[in-house]
């Protein structure tokens, strides 16, 4: 089933103890590094913090450009570490989507 991700939140419960950035995205490979949802998100920031994944900006471009991401049934959601290790990190990613029939 294809879905359209319309919103998302990242909750960093416990921050990484080292410099760590994550990429989160959707693509055709289960092992590739996609960043079409989050790119180089620092994971060693404030503990117990919430971050928006789909940014809504009040501009003319935003009003005429979709603000989400298509996730086709054959594709994968990947979370990759772009720098260092994520030792000590505890986080949850919440995605809101609609089904595309």
Q: Mind explaining what this structure looks like?
A:
This protein is globular. It is built from one helix and seven strands; from the N terminus they run E-E-E-E-H-E-E-E. It has one domain. The strands form two sheets. Strands 1, 4, 5 and 7 form a four-stranded antiparallel sheet that branches. The protein is 5% helix and 50% strand. It is mainly beta.
Summarize the topology.
Elements: E1 2-14, E2 21-27, E3 38-42, E4 49-52, H1 60-64, E5 69-71, E6 76-83, E7 90-100
Antiparallel strand pairs: 1-4, 1-5, 1-7, 2-3, 2-6
Enumerate the spans where pLDDT stays under 50 for 5 or more consecutive residues.
none
Secondary structure: helix percent: under 10%
Shape: globular
Strand content: over 45%
| Average residue pLDDT | 84
Radius of gyration from the alpha-carbon trace, in angstroms? 14 Å
Oligomer: single chain
How do the SSEs run, as a string of H and E? Answer: EEEEHEEE
| Major beta sheet summary | 4 strands, antiparallel
Number of helices: 1
Count all strands and give the number: 7
Q: Structural class of the secondary elements? A: mainly beta
Euclidean distance between termini CA atoms: 8 Å
Q: How many structural units, i.e. domains? A: 1
Task: From the structure above, extract its key features.
about 5% helix, about 100 residues, mainly beta, 3-stranded antiparallel beta sheet, 4-stranded antiparallel beta sheet, 1 helix, 7 strands
Give a quick rundown of the structure:
The chain is 5% helix and 50% strand. It is mainly beta and 101 residues long.
